[in-house]
Amino acid sequence: MEKSPEMPQDILRCIFATLEIPDLVRAGSVCSSWHAEYTSLCNTGNYRLQQTPCLLYTSESTDAREAGLYSLAENKAYTLILPDPPIRSRYIIGSSFGWIITADERSELHLLNPITCEQIALPSVTTIEQVKPIYDDEGSVCNYEYLWYTGEDVISDTPSVFPLSELRDFLFYKAFLSSDPSMGSYFVVLIHNPHSQLSFARAGDNNLTWLPPCSYYEDCLFKGGLLYASTTIGEIHTFNLDAPAVTQKVFLDKMKHIYFERIYIVQSTCGDLLQIWRSNAPSCGEEEGESDSDLELDFDRDSHVSCTTKINVHKVEPTSRKILEINSLNQNVLFIGHNQTICLHAEDYPQLKANHVYFTDDNYLYTTDFKNNRRDIGIFDLENNSSEEITTPQLWSNWPTPVWLTPNPRRLNFGTLCS
């Protein structure tokens, strides 16, 4: 590196502490003393904590180990070079605290920080209650047996057998972290099939622990030392994962009888618990005057698109245990999708649009059945119920599905980010 430009270290430190991650990385490449200061900031956590979420994606036009990072703060795309297994070969099932949760071609789970390139292997998929390994004559796992039961019901007495790479298509829905793994202690929680059940593990565990009996979970939130899990009918259950025997408590009874919308939960910037309902409808690019029967005859899987048509936000009233629909987020901004749901205040993030929802595609059936089709990604205006594109033309491949990532530079691996 070149010789350091003359600047007092305390001033340099103050400047660095205000930067978004892409700018911080570029500043750290100027010279050895700047790199040392930037490394120190990352290791101590004294960088700017209010990082603007970015869109993490892959592209067929790049190497299989490369991921794109689209910065909403700069309206600019960057390239990340990630460690094996190649990111394009993985499924992305979660994003929390700057780490993504991925399933590789053996359906095994990993935590990956795309900024630092650090990885953590999670307990084997065969420790999930409904998954058993099948061994070949040499003692290697060659297939998985998948058992069709929940804590409440036996769906089928006949197990399924899946090749190693195909189990992930049927098993995983979403994953969440309780805290930043780079800080040491954390929980990882999975929503998995059959019927969207819960399992969890602590940092360092060798096995995933099943949380029966309930099913049909949609989203999770860690708050006040408890796991809050919302179901497809609006129930919210709480779990104390630190307890010697984990039990479920009902925080909110069911809010609807029919499963239609996807449901998210998040804590607002003022501390309220919000429940978000997202409606989707198929859009096959029909022309004006085209009838439903015409569409059925001409249906083309490659042109089928699922689109977000409505987003409703409700405030959870803890005393009455009811929900109240609110007309506006005011200065709040939401990020929903396969990420852990995020609520930010637009005054702290001037590049973001207040009273808007930034969304990516997490429709399990649509994304797994139509992997090559256009993803449902955009910015939803809650005032007029309309959507707009994040950027045009589209930068990302349709699979694996792009996800929101809040960059976390702790122990940053210098030199992996380039514009």
UniProtKB/TrEMBL annotation:
Residues 69-381 form the KIB1-4 beta-propeller domain. Gene3D superfamilies: 1.20.1280.50. Residues 7-36 form the F-box domain. Pfam families: Beta-prop_KIB1-4, F-box-like. CDD domains: F-box_SF. This is F-box domain-containing protein. It comes from Urochloa decumbens.
